[in-house]
Amino acid sequence: MTPELYSSTYKDQRAVTFESALIRVQFLPEIGAKMASLVFKPLNYELLVQRPGEKYKIQPFDGDFVAAECSGIDDMFPTIDACYYDPFPWSGTKMADHGEVWSLPWQCEILENNRLFFSVHGVRFPYRLEKWISFTAPGILRTDYL
Q1: CA dist 72 → 20, 38, 39, 88 (Å)
Q2: How far, in Å, CA of 1 to CA of 49, rounded?
Q3: Is 69:56 a contact under the CB 8 Å cutoff?
Q4: What span, in angstroms and rounded, lies between the C-alpha atoms of 1 and 4?
Q5: How many CB atoms lie under 10 A from the CB of residue 25?
Q6: What is the pLDDT of residues 42-55, one digit of tens each?
Q7: Cα 26 from chain centroid?
């Protein structure tokens, strides 16, 4: 089976589903491009922690991470804890709890050769974070960052 990419829904949020013969994974482009669900299809078994309920708990940029969904896998960049940047030219700039990108909307593109591409720009710092998702085999999901 060739991997399939298609639009879907996770709880009450827009999602992108990527599916091989063995794995079904869902990403939320508007909420940090997080991996919300990872299912091993032969057993229909969810491999990631899930919070109960039909509505996804959203927090704004620089919000309280613990008050958010707290499930799946989030990208934490450029930091994990709320803190302040020391060196010039951004000295004194607050760095968000669990980083900037977990709550931001990411650009999402479906690329040739069944690859998924996400990108996001920093809010308080000048960076662009990119990630590519692909299946290298039916049971191997690969994520590359730049």
Answers
A1: 19, 8, 11, 35
A2: 27
A3: yes
A4: 9
A5: 23
A6: 999 999 999 999 99
A7: 9
Sign of CA dihedral 45, 51, 55, 58: negative
Provide the residue type at 97 as one letter: D
Amino acid at 43: L
Q: Angle at CA 134, nearest 5°, toward 79 and 3? A: 145
- The pLDDT of residue 124 is 96
Burial class (CB in 10 A: 0-12, 13-18, 19+), 120: buried
User: Can you read off the two tokens belonging to residue 58?
Assistant: 């959203």
Residue 1 predicted with pLDDT over 80: no
Instruction: Extract the tokens encoding 13.
Output: 């949020």
pLDDT in tens, 83-104: 999 999 999 999 999 999 999 9
pLDDT of the residue at 2: 87
| Helix intervals (H) in the chain | none
Spatial distance between the Cα atoms of 50 and 32, rounded to a whole number of angstroms: 16
Note the pLDDT of residue 62.
93
Nearest-angstrom CA–CA distance, 146 and 60: 25
Closest CA to 28 of 53, 52, 57, 65: 57
